[in-house]
Amino acid sequence: MRANSLWIIVLSFFVALVLQVLPMPDLLPMETGYLRPHWVALVLIYWIIALPHRIGLIIAWLLGLLMDVLLGSLLGQHAIALIIVAYIASSLYQRLRMFAVWQQSLIVFGIIGIDRLVNFWIQSIVGQSEWSSWYLLSPFVSALVWPWIFLVLRYMRRLFNVT
Amino acid sequence: MLALSILSLILMAVDQKSELLDDVRAALVVVVTPVTVIADYPSRTAEGMQSMFATRGDMRERITQLEAELLLLKAKTEKMAALTAENNRLRDLLGSAAKLQDNVLVAELIGVDPDPEKHEVIIDKGTTSGVFVGQPLLDAQGLMGQVIETSPYSSRVLLVSDQSHAVPVQVTRSNLRLIAQGSGVTRQLELMHVQDTADIQVGDLLVSSGLGDRFPVGYPVGVVNKVEHVPGKPFATVTATPSASLIRSRHVLLVFTEEQLREPLAGNGRDS
Q1: For A133-153, what is each residue's pLDDT tens digit?
Q2: pLDDT digits (tens, 9 = 90+) for B164-193
Q3: In angstroms, rounded to a whole number, what is the distance separating the alpha carbons of residues B62 and B262?
Q4: B8 with A79: Cβ contact below 8 A
Q5: What whole-number distance in Å separates Cα of residue A140 and Cα of residue A3?
Q6: Average pLDDT estimate for B195-203
Q7: Inter-chain Cβ pairs, chain A and chain B, closer than 8 A
Q8: For B261, how many CA atoms within 13 A lie in the half-sphere containing its CB?
Q9: Which one of B7, B8, B186 would you mutate to disrupt binding with A, by most A Cβ within 10 Å of its Cβ?
Q10: ipTM > 0.85, yes or no
C-alpha cells in the first residue's frame, strides 16, 4: 500500500472511535445511548469487505483493545467481540460483495447482534449487567446506518484510490 | 483467530483478577486521549457559542448577578471560617481527631461513558495532578462519586448513581446512619435496609457519614424523595434524589483530605 492512502483507513477508524464515545446531548435522556450504532464495527466490516488482504483480525483486535480502554471495560472484552466480527466478515466477504446493500444490512444486523451478545455475556460473567431488550436497538440502528457508511467509505476509497 | 481470542481471554482474566494490567491500561489511555478530547469538542463548542452570541446587556446582567452571589457566598464563608475554627477548637477539647478542613482541586468533565448502563465520567486531571484511585469527587451541590481509574492526564469516575456504587450516609435531622446505593437511574439513589420504624421522612437531607474512610464527612449526598412502608416486607422502600447534578456539572472538585495531603504527592496547582 502506498503511504498516502494508508491515512484514509486510519482516519476512518479514528472518526469511528470518536463517534463511539461522543457524549449524547444533555437534553436527551440517557436511554438514547442505546440508539448508538456500533460505528467501529461498521467501519471495520467495510474495510474487511473492501480490502480483505489489508485489514484482518489483528487490526480488529487492536481496535478492540482501544475501545476497551476508551470505554473502561475489561481489557479484551471488545477485542474478542471485534475478532469475532472480523472473522465472520472475512469469511463472508466474497458473498457480501455480491449482495445488494440492503441485503448486506441484514447480515450487518446479525454480525453486530453477535457482537453485542458477546459483550453482554462477558459483562454478565463479570456481574456488571442485566439483560434488557434495549440491547437489540444498537444492531438495528447499525443496520440502518450501514448503507450510508458503505456508500461514503466506498466513495472515499475510490477517490483516494486506497488499495 | 484462535490465538488472538485466547490472548483476549487471558487478558480479561488477568485484568479481572489482578492489577498487573493497570499500567498497560494507563499507557493506552494516554494513546486514546485525543479521541476523548475530540469527542468532547461539540459540547464544548456549544457552550462557547452561547457566550459568544450573548449580548452586552446579558453579560452585564450576568456579571451583576454573579457579583451579588459572590458577595453572599463570601459572607457565608466568613461565618464558615469562624464556625470551622470554633468546631476544631471544640474537637480539640474533646480530643477528637476529625477536622473540617479539606483541600480541593478543580477538574473539568471531558467525557461521559456512552454505555447507558454504566454511570461513569472522565475528568481532565490524572496522576500528574495527584489524583488517586478512591478519591471522592464533588460538584457545587454535593457528592458526585469516586475515582476508579487513573492515567497520567485523565481519570475515570464512578458516579453515586451507578448500580455498583454505594455510599455511607447519615440523615442530618435524626443522625440515622444508612447506606445509599446507586439505582442505575441518574436521578435516583436507593437507601438500603431502612427499618420500618426508622426516623426518616420525605425531604430529609442525607450527608456523607465518613464511615468506611473513603468519603469525607458532611458533604450532601441527596434528599429523600419517597418513603414507602410495604406491609409484610422487613424494610421500608426509601429513595433519594442525588444533590449533585451528576451529568450536567462541567466543573467538579476533587477532594484531598488532610491525611492524604500529609503523604508526599507529586501534585501542584492545588488550591485550598
Answers
A1: 778 888 999 999 999 999 999
A2: 899 999 999 988 999 999 988 888 899 989
A3: 40
A4: yes
A5: 36
A6: 89
A7: 105
A8: 14
A9: B8
A10: no
Residue ranges of alpha helices (H) inside A51-132 are 57-71, 77-98, 101-126
Average pLDDT (B208-216) is 86
Domain hosting B230: range is 166-242
- Number of Cβ within 10 Å of residue A67's Cβ equals 25
- Rounded CA gap, B15 and B19, in Å? 7
Is the minimum CB–CB distance between A79 and chain B shorter than 8 Å?
Answer: yes
Residues 6+ apart with CB under 8 A from B113: A71, A72, B119, B120, B121, B122
Q: Could you state, in order of their start, the residue ranges of all structural domains in chain A? A: 10-16+33-160
Looking at CA atoms only, how far is residue A4 from chain B in angstroms? Answer: 22
**Residues of chain B with C-beta less than 8 angstroms from the C-beta of A16:** none
Identify which has the larger pLDDT, A29 or B65: B65
Residue type at position B234: P
Whether residue B178 lies inside any domain: the answer is yes
